[in-house]
Design brief:
11 helices; about 280 residues; globular; six-stranded parallel beta sheet; alpha/beta; single chain; three-stranded antiparallel beta sheet; binds adenosine monophosphate
Length: about 280
C-alpha cells in the first residue's frame, strides 16, 4: 500500500485502474472503517482510502483538537485489509489559499445533525464533493452509522450529476451493542457502560414496533426512558423517513429511529431501522 499526499499522485495511481473504490474516513480506524475497506477490496480493482480530519465539518473546536489521530496505525490496518492507496492529504492540499466554494444541501441537511451542528453538513458536502473530484472513483463506501450523511451525500451526488455509486454498509457494534466510533476511546469506564443505553433504547423502540406500536411519539418516549435510566439526556431522538429525513408520525414502512446524546465529554450518534 502506498501513502500519497497530493492529487497529482492519486490521479497517476488511479489512471487506467479499472473499477476504483473509495473509502472516505477521518482515521482512528475501528472495525466499522475496516468493514468498508474490506467491502471495497471485495468488489473493486483499486481501493483508495481517504484519510483526512476535515476541519470544516467540526462545529466544536475542542472536538477537532481532541479528535484521535494515528496515521501509522491506520496505514497498517488499511494495508492489512488490502487497500492499495492511502490518500492522506494536508489541509493546504484540500483547502489551498483562496479556497472559496461551499456546497450546501438544503432540506435533508437542515434537520437533526444539521440543526444541532451548524455548518457540519456544508463541511461534509464540500469535502466529499472535492474528494470525489480528486479521486474520481466508480463507487464510494459509507457506513449506515452516519445515516444522515449518507442521505445528504446521495442527494448531492444526484443533484450535481457526480456519477458515483454509493454503497452503504451496516453499523458495526461492540459486543454490548455500542456502535463503534472513533470518539469512543474518549469515554471513561463509567461513561462507556452508560453509553450502551443508546443502543438499548433503539432496540426497545424496535421491540415496540414488533409488538404493534405505530405511534412515533410513543417510540421517542420509549427511547428517552431507556436513556434516562442510564442518566443520559438526548440532544434529539427522532423518527424519520430513512431517505428524506422527513419526520414520520405513524410507522407504515421502513423508518429510521435516530438519536444523538452527550455521554460525559463525548457526543455520540446512533440509529436503527424499524419496520412494521
Ligand atoms: P469517520 O472516520 O467517523 O468519518 O467515518 C468514516 C466512515 O466510516 C463513514 O462512512 C462512517 O459512517 C463509517 N463508520 C463509522 N463508524 C462505523 C460503524 N460503527 N459501523 C459502520 N461504519 C462506520
Amino acid at each position: 500500500m502506498r501513502i500519497v499526499r497530493d492529487v497529482a499522485a492519486v490521479r497517476a495511481a488511479v489512471a487506467g485502474a479499472g473499477r476504483i473504490g473509495l473509502v472516505p474516513t477521518m482515521g482512528a480506524f475501528h472495525e466499522g472503517h475496516l468493514s468498508l475497506i474490506r467491502a471495497a477490496r471485495a468488489t473493486c480493482d483499486l481501493v483508495v482510502v481517504w484519510l483526512f480530519v476535515n476541519p470544516t465539518q467540526f462545529n466544536d473546536a475542542s472536538d477537532l483538537v481532541t479528535y484521535p489521530r494515528d496515521e501509522e496505525r491506520d496505514a497498517a490496518l488499511a494495508a492489512g485489509c488490502g487497500a492499495d492507496l492511502l490518500f492522506a492529504p494536508t489541509v493546504d492540499e484540500v483547502y489551498p489559499a483562496g479556497f472559496a466554494t461551499t456546497v450546501t444541501v438544503s432540506g435533508i441537511a437542515d434537520v437533526l445533525e444539521g440543526a444541532h451542528r451548524p455548518g457540519h453538513f456544508a463541511g461534509v458536502a464540500t469535502v466529499v464533493a472535492k474528494m470525489l473530484n480528486m479521486v474520481r472513483p466508480d463507487v464510494a463506501f459509507f457506513g449506515a452509522k452516519d445515516a444522515q450523511q449518507v442521505a445528504v451525500v446521495r442527494r448531492m451526488v444526484a443533484d450535481l450529476d457526480l456519477g458515483v455509486e454509493i454503497e452503504v454498509l451496516p453499523i458495526v457494534r461492540e459486543a454490548d451493542g455500542l456502535a463503534m466510533s472513533s470518539r469512543n476511546v474518549r469515554l471513561g469506564p463509567e461513561e462507556r457502560r452508560r453509553a450502551t443505553a443508546l443502543h438499548r433504547g433503539l432496540e426497545a423502540a424496535r421491540t415496540a414496533v414488533t409488538g404493534g406500536e405505530r405511534d412515533a411519539g410513543v417510540l421517542v418516549r420509549t427511547v428517552e426512558d431507556v436513556l434516562a435510566a442510564g442518566a443520559i439526556t438526548a440532544e434529539y431522538v427522532a423518527v424519520v423517513d430513512p431517505d428524506s429525513f422527513a419526520p414520520v408520525a405513524t410507522i407504515t414502512g421502513r423508518t429510521l429511529v435516530a438519536l444523538a446524546a452527550r455521554v460525559g465529554p463525548v457526543r455520540l450518534i446512533d440509529n436503527l431501522e424499524v419496520a412494521p
